[in-house]
Amino acid sequence: MAKQPGIFILFICLLLTGCRGDKLPIPAEVPGPAFKQEFSQGKLTVTVNLSRMEMNVAQQTVLKLTASAPEEYKLELPDFSEKPGSFTIVETRYDKPELKNDFLSRGVSWTLEPFLSGSYIIPEMTVRAGQGNKEFSIIIPEIQVNVSSLLTENKDLADIAPMLLPEPDYFYYYLAAGLILLACALFAFYCLKLRKLPEPPPVPPVPPHIAALRALDELLARNLPEQGKIKEFYQAISAILRRYIENRFQLRAVEQTTEEFFSSLDSSSLFNLEQKQLLKKFMDHCDLVKFAKHKPAKEETRKMITFCREFITSVQ
Questions:
Q1: Apex 39 CA angle, 34 and 43, nearest 5
Q2: Distance, CA of 153 to CA of 149 (rounded, Å)
Q3: Distance between CA 262 and CA 259 in Å, rounded?
Q4: How confident is the model at residue 169 (pLDDT cuts 50, 70, 90)?
Q5: What is the pLDDT of residues 249-279, one digit of tens each?
Q6: Measured distance CA(162)–CA(177) in Å, rounded
Q7: Nearest to 58, CA basis, from 316, 272, 242, 313
Q8: How far apart are CA 94 and CA 288, in angstroms?
Q9: SS3 48
């Protein structure tokens, strides 16, 4: 009997209120400025092209290097054995050598992809050409590329729209008034006859984003990377983000594989295209460490922590 007033009031609210959701527009991709420079020393000529110097985390830039020297000279092009300036090499392509006027031209291009926002430096590159005691070398200075974040551009995500009242209908007004009077009568009976002390209100649950940020702070306090427990750290940070998405958006993210999770997101409008791409990069990187025994650098680990915190605070 003590719970009846609350049930009627809740029923009234459901009749008189409604909500709607707005979809976020997907920003159009705007190409950044390109870079081109030519160097020469003796009979060696080198041309460097970079398709973008200003980009966002969802874009790629192509670094192309072309060298030309006499046919009898031996050309030596640079080789990125590691990530160039924290970029990820998506593709390496060597051009077919071309001979023109006794000069041999060779070219190579790298498709580079960033992981997080920031200032990226493509390190110095050295091109050599020589024959016997004759040798020419050109040092190409480092190139700075600025990468912007999509999360800051779309930081204010659409929230639940204000409640909209239904079109006027006197039947519902009379019904609502009658239910309110009935609820008041029941509440008065409760106060006068039962005279029981009101029960304390239930403790509100911790919001998903607060719980996720607390879990992230507890994980950082354990200092797992410093102890060499890289795989355990990536398992924990991946579980924190998956649990947050499941609790916040009611998606089955914890028990699903990465492929199953993104398959279920294809038809979902909870995230825009850029946010889905960032999530896939994060989970693919975690899977490389957990299942492919990939050993990330300290800078990659710090960027994973930064991404996880920014993503939770941006969509909460």
A1: 145
A2: 7
A3: 5
A4: low
A5: 888 778 888 888 888 777 777 778 888 888 8
A6: 23
A7: 272
A8: 27
A9: strand
CA 148 to chain centroid: 12
DSSP letter for 193, please: I
3-state helix, strand, coil in the chain (%, to 5): 40, 25, 35
Q: How many CB atoms lie within 10 A of CB 37?
A: 12
Instruction: From 141, 196, 132, select the one nearest 3 (Cα to Cα).
Output: 196
- Angle between helix 230-249 and helix 208-221 axes, rounded to 10 deg: 170
Diameter over CA atoms, the chain: 109
For strand 74-76 and strand 61-70, is the pairing parallel, antiparallel, or unpaired? Answer: unpaired
What are the φ/ψ torsions at residue 253 (nearest 5 degrees)? Answer: -100, -20
| Residue of 56 and 6 predicted with greater confidence | 56
Under DSSP, is residue 51 helix (H, G, I), strand (E, B) or coil? coil
Residue 49's pLDDT band (cuts 50, 70, 90)? very high
Residue that has been written with the tokens 């947050």 in this structure = 244
